[in-house]
Amino acid sequence: MASLEGGCLYDVDEESSLQPDKPFRVSDAELLASPIALPCGRVISNRLVKVAMYEHLAAFSGGSPNQYHISLYSRWAQGGWGMIITGNCQISPTHLTLGRDITIPRAKSVRELDPFKALSTAMRSSGIPYAKDGDSPLAIMQLSHTGGQSPRFIGGRLGTLRRPVAPSSRRFSVDSKGNWLTQAAYWFLFSTPRTLTSEQVRLLVEDFFSAAKLAYETGFDGVQLHAAHGCRLDSSNQTSFRNFYRPRRADLNNRQDEYSNRLLLLQQIILRIKAEMPPRFVLGVKLNAGDYVTGGLSEEDALNDTRRVSQLGIDFIEISGGNYENPVYANASPRQAFFASFSRKVVQSMPISGTKSTPLIILTGGLRTPSQMARIISHKHAHLLGLGRLSVLCPDFPHRISPVVVVRGDEDALLPIPEPNLYCPRWFPKLVGAGVGTAWYVVAMRQIARGKDINSRMGSIGAVFWMWIWAGPYGLAGFAIWTLIGLVFVLTWVRLSGWS
Predict the structure, then answer these.
(1) pLDDT, tens digit, for every residue of 455-471?
(2) Global pTM?
(3) For residue 9, which of 327, 304, 280, 302 has the smallest C-alpha distance?
(4) Which of 107, 91, 112, 359 is nearest to 218 (CA)?
(5) Which helix (H) or strand (E) holds 318?
(6) 103 forms bridges with which residues in the sheet?
(7) 226 in helix, strand or coil?
(8) Residue 10: per-residue pLDDT
């Protein structure tokens, strides 16, 4: 159980000591409910952001938003969030993550654009009559390219011999510590990518711009460029920035042209969008603090990169990659230790009070209690707070901690929020184990989209099964195709695990 008021909080002051969480006061609720303006002039109604999560709701092999997306995001829109960011929308239909991604259409016909218009409308449908700018949530589309981490059979290239493209021809795999079964699973799922030429990289910039233009034309308030990257197939899926952005790993980016500069591609995309889009079109970037640990970079490198990105005229930077609440995890993970330090220093390296050209900082990771969230804002360690899984467990979380509820003393609204039992059997191969959490929340989002309550008793195996065995928006035909592929994946994992 994740209590809204219990537990311990990592002190965000420089002493870095553990202190008990304090009661959630009316002043705390008012702080989290206070509006804030982006550099472009758009106003966010409060400090709570529903960040991107992988929905797994599109048609087989990807497609446009459908009734499930619209229903899910309508629920979030009515929950009182200040800004809502979609799951990753792939700019390339042949570079999907787990097979049911939203994809940006090549043709811009009315038929292709209408589903995106419906989604943006749903994301801003706050239920507030005569809502003004700053009342309804800002609707942000996250743009992504999976690159070499796009898998073989569900990556959008089924029935072809095409390989994914990436900065370098290196197969995506686990490190040398992975056992041979895990290595075999990665070999089965991922092929060796083709190296992008300089001209193809420049075309990639145009693809991102075209996707941003589609977002604007279909009513979205802005876009977020997914420049974060990890080594897991989870709700924070990887982008094609992944390997461009790791210069000290020669096996990931060994280019000898101008794109050996890890920030060049991101800079070109930002400047291209800024040059064409209206001034009030929101532009954000997602960065992952943990990337610098696995990429061999120093904290100063990370801070310098963040400063350089902040000078490109963007509106917000989302920093994820760790657990802000519990740095004790750092004893077992250098990634957690880096995040606990970096997430504070990056916001201190820029004027937190905000200037017209200073992007707002969204902190994402391990945020659980309202008191903790209020303390982060009051200590000026972030402007905004990004919530992912908590937004699924409690779609109306902002309303539940609003000043009106706190003043009223509605104890029922502040009851503990149940968290799932994500126990992973030891016999699960590593890749499946890493995706159990994703599977549980995918199924939970699907239940919300269907207007049902979340089944909090669903276990790990059931979550993995029901994530893959689903009819989807195309009914029985889609169910037959997806079930066949899902069974192949499930049987492959069971077979591999049975050999251990």
Answers:
(1) 888 888 888 888 888 87
(2) 0.85
(3) 327
(4) 112
(5) strand 316-320
(6) 90
(7) strand
(8) 26
